[in-house]
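Go through this chain.

——
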Amino acid sequence: MKVLNFLRPENGLTEDPLYYLNFEKYEGVARDCYLFMADFYKDLYSGRYDDKEKVVLTLEEPNFCVAPGDKVKLHEVADKILTICPYTAELFDNREFVFFPFSEDWIPPASEKIIDVSYFGSMPKAVPWESYIKNVFTRYNFRFGHYSMGNVPRCSYADKMMMYAATKVAVVHGLCNINPQTAERYYNFPYGDLNAAFSQLDKGWAPQIKSRMFEAAFARCVILCQKDPWNPIEKFFEPEKDFLYFEDEEDLKKILNHVVNNYDEFDQMRENAYNKAVNNYTTKHFVEKFLK
């Protein structure tokens, strides 16, 4: 396997988890193929890599499944597409649903939990996430990290994982923002009318599995997840056993307050999620399951 992880420094996303998956260490044990990652589109379509199997790892779907437009479709160029979207995967023969891998090299050591609550990432517009930060998180010792905002903006990946390791509760979601004005592009995508991920584009959202739910598990946080119409986190973790749901802002206030002030009650839940992660969702497991 030859890993082609196309980093585009000009987009400012150099600390994206995509660049810390460490697939390169398994190039000698995986099958003979190209593994396309990150901003791979123009290179995949260039014809320069047609001498062996082209495997694409796309960790953005259903968002970007229509990129780079309607002229060329990803499934028409790649031999195998490994996707985090179960709903898109079930509609194509050459797509396979996968988990978001986490490099075992980045598993943080157990740490004292001195940060009450953390959230890293962009904010879904279809739910009042900005209000969660302003009206709930600020009551606690919190960390909010993003490429351009938060109280730890543009932190390094290493610093993010250190903060997760010191965090009691990681608040997460499984949503991506979709501009309703572009919904027609998704509906026109092959089998778009059958894709369950496209069922609520008019509301400006779609399901998307995120790295943060796995990062939080590897860091032994209590995972508190926003409930939504799809709940893709359940593909990997079990509610009430491995993580907790919250419904809205009032629910978030109540549950977060209880967890932070009764943290020992959730030690088994944290260990459940951690053990499930280290035994199933590392890059090594990913290679063994999907790339050999």
